[in-house]
Amino acid sequence: MFTVPVRVEYLNDGTSGIYGVGDTGYTFTVTPTYHATENTFVRGELAYIKAKDKVFVDDKGTLPATEDTNTSFALQAGVTF
Fold first, then answer.
1. Counting beta carbons within 10 angstroms of the beta carbon of residue 77, is it exposed (0 to 12), middle (13 to 18) or buried (19 or more)?
2. 3-state class of 35 per DSSP?
3. pTM for this structure?
4. Which uninterrupted H or E stretch holds 9?
5. Residue 51: which residues within 8 A CB-CB, separation 6 or more?
6. What are the angstrom distances between the C-alpha of 28 and each of 15, 19, 34?
7. 51 to each of 7, 20, 77, how far by Cα in Å?
8. Within the chain, what is the greatest distance between any pair of CA atoms?
9. How does DSSP classify residue 67?
10. Do 11 and 19 form a contact (C-beta atoms < 8 A)?
């Protein structure tokens, strides 16, 4: 009824700039999920990202970007069918 998926990712833009992290970075995500019934769930997602360059704004939205890390949290509920 309760699962805790963990995901670790390594990012490498090469020369494309597609991820916008300044060549390289990594993420660490934990997604605890409660399966209330066979086809319903509630999950939280806590993610941490570290980039090579300063690509994130601070909590005041200061530009240009002043941070090379970011943490986010999300809450989801859903039905599978």
1. exposed
2. strand
3. 0.78
4. strand 6-12
5. 21, 22, 24, 25, 68, 69
6. 23, 16, 20
7. 17, 9, 30
8. 47
9. B
10. yes
